[in-house]
Amino acid sequence: MRTDFKIPHTFTIVFSIIVVCALLTWIIPGGEFDRQTVNVDGHERSVVVENSYHHVDKQPQTWQICTSFFKGFERTSSIIVFILMIGGAFWIMNETNAINRGIYLFLNRTQKMQEHKFFRAVGVNNLLIIAIMIMFSLFGSVFGMSEETIAFIVIFVPLAISMGYDSIVGVLMCYVAAHVGFAGAMLNPFTIGIAQGLSGLPTFSGLGYRFFCWIILTIIAIVFTLLYARWVKKNPTKSIMYELDQYWRDKTSVEDIDQSVVKSSALTWVVYGVIAAILVYCAFAMPKTTIALGNGSSEIVLFPIIAVIYILLGFFATRKSVHHFILVLLLLTIVTLVTGVLGYDWYVMEIAGLFFAMGIAAGFAFNLKLDKIIRLFLDGCKDIMVAALVVGLAGGIIVILEDGKIIDTILYAISQGMGNAGRIGTTGIMYVVQNLLNLIIPSGSAKAALTIPMMAEWSDIMGVSRQLTVLAFQFGDGFTNMLTPTSGVLIGVLGVARIPYAKWFKFIWKFLLGLIILGFILLLPPLFVAFAGF
Fold it and tell me: pTM of the predicted model, to two decimals?
């Protein structure tokens, strides 16, 4: 009798990986490298000391399988809290119905644009997908956008569903675009900056060829997304997410969207005025924002510009309806996020606080009582709790490997097995190693500190430029981030989008395999052509 195979829950898959890793700690010998602290671009980094590997006593993991969940929570606590705060903030936002109204108005506008021959021939939806993906790819390439994409999932997944696609298209538009840009980065300080510093190379050198790689990778990602989106549009039931996406369809159904116009209350104007006053204060207190891109920096009058635009745009939006004002508030939040990341080194704590403030402001603007806002926030945290729990559990994978003392043993065994493979073989081996290591060490900065000091020396012996070693690390660090269950960002994104890990793996693995092959092809030209910086 034939029985249908049921895809395991993401929690089950991740826990099974933890068990396997615990078993490996009984098989693989314990070992460690000595480490030293070095200064890289003003930041202290712990790096491996060359030829310092030594055996240590085995640390087989048994009941630690259970405690790894706790330690995983500690390790990924910032992402977990970030997810909970984002979920709570957007639950308040959803209560106002502003996002759904915005999507409805946007779809109406796109339908009118289809009346023009150009937009009808090209497709308004296609242009939108291209524009969004280029923007997020640039964000990933320039300042290493990663965790920030979690906040955008709750915007782009409903938008993709409303456009007739599935939740996967929404993830492709922002998360995958950002990580393709991350892999083909030009100025990413978290990967290129650290790796080049550890290699003794000028920071952000070799920009020309990296820019070429970014263009190629971004085009491939956009084409793939457009083809998949068109395939889903023709027959949505063929999507592997069709049944599970019913959750999003119920929330974004155009027929069910309340079309009534809610006029702004006195409290809406108060919220508008308070935010305007805050922005005016910021404009005087921080008239110029220093934006650092690569080795250069520019002072831009950002907050005064943001304040003027908000005051004008917010005024007319508030006069129109409370929904329009809340959409302006969402736009202000996104602009402030980018400003904070580029100009003030914001990370998940500041971004979570920003969206939390957005949720509270939206609630008051909609004339909700404080008690109601708090209850909505808690409901949002409950709704997103499973995603947060899975992120914590995924962090336990790395905990088991580290506590079991086998990560360094695996790295040492790989480095010893490299041998004399020639320049092409050496480049390929370094690239494969970085891809494999990324499955268990998704942190780019941590992996750079672990591998670059050794591989830079080894590349000198084999006649491969250190710049190419950094490029191999960069590609290897970027692509498999979109697949490894040890990545808290990936698990968080899938949790918010309500895409089971098994379904995501089934969808993405062929595309990632193509990217990995393309990455190796892009590593070959610098072996034979003297590109600037290589």
Answer: 0.76
